[in-house]
Amino acid sequence: MAERIGFLTAGTFCLDRNITVDAWPEEDRVTTVRAVERSGGGSACNFAADLRRLDPSVPVETQTLVGADADGDFLVSVAEAHGIDTSGFARTADAHTQTTDAYHSLASGLRTHIAFLGAAALMTPDHFDFSASNARFLHLGLPSIHERMDAPWGGDANGWVTVLKRARSAGLETNLELVSTTPEALREAILPCLPHLTTLVCNDFEIGALGRVATLDGAVTDVDAVIVAARAVLEKGAMDLVAVHFTTGAVLVARDGATVFIPSVKVPPAAFHGANGAGDAFAAGFFYGRHRGWSHERCLRMGHATSAASLRAAGTYQAVESAETVLALAESWGWRD
Fold first, then answer.
1. In 3D, which of 262, 247, 237 has the Cα closest to residue 307?
2. Is residue 69 domain-resident?
3. Residues 6-40: pLDDT tens digits?
């Protein structure tokens, strides 16, 4: 087989309705919607679209399950518009395409996601086949929102383990995108996957949950605690490295002992229009650097730059531009101390 190159994103590919409201209301109260935007969403979609926007020369393919309906057609069109290989799209008439209403509060800047899982509940390991793929990296997600994937499969703890094992056997490097659910649910779903991962990129809450370390004091990230948690999680799996992103920076801990901290970009408040997809953008930027063979430090900076650029839109990938452009934007805004 030829040298492996590019990415295969797999798993959650859903329709997002990005809804901007004045403020998130209390129950039995009313708020005003200021904008509604329809776009692709989910880790497989966002990561793939971000990569193609960063560099259209990078090969990206996807494997997912969507409904045989108009929303599924829309998601296929999103992938095609970005030059993503859609031959891995499976369609089902047994459920509607997964959709998410992503509310962005102008008052707080926070996001609230309301998901209709639809076809997500029907996805199984049988929807993934790596035998004909020449991709180097698999980016897989999202555990805890796919009922059959979350359940035991063929002797494995869950279907995610099955898919990761198949990908490793086929020669792919593997990464798993997480959902910030409860600590107990995260540990149940993710810990069995760690022996089958090449890398793990996640956020401060998720690494704390997996490592059983308190990484947050309210909304403030304890960087030293993140490093402790990342080292603990690294020892639980086969990963070469663990990278953890948060509002003020990112930490990388490698199996060879390297530990790196890079502060994030100082995004001007006026430029902020929504954080939906910011984690996917960080991962895409980070892995773009990995694809190019960059240093750990440069990969983290690329992740921050891509994530910062994505904050300029309510959608998940619409504000991401070329790698050179997002890096120049980050330099113009400057970096946190």
1. 247
2. yes
3. 999 999 999 999 899 999 999 999 999 999 989 99
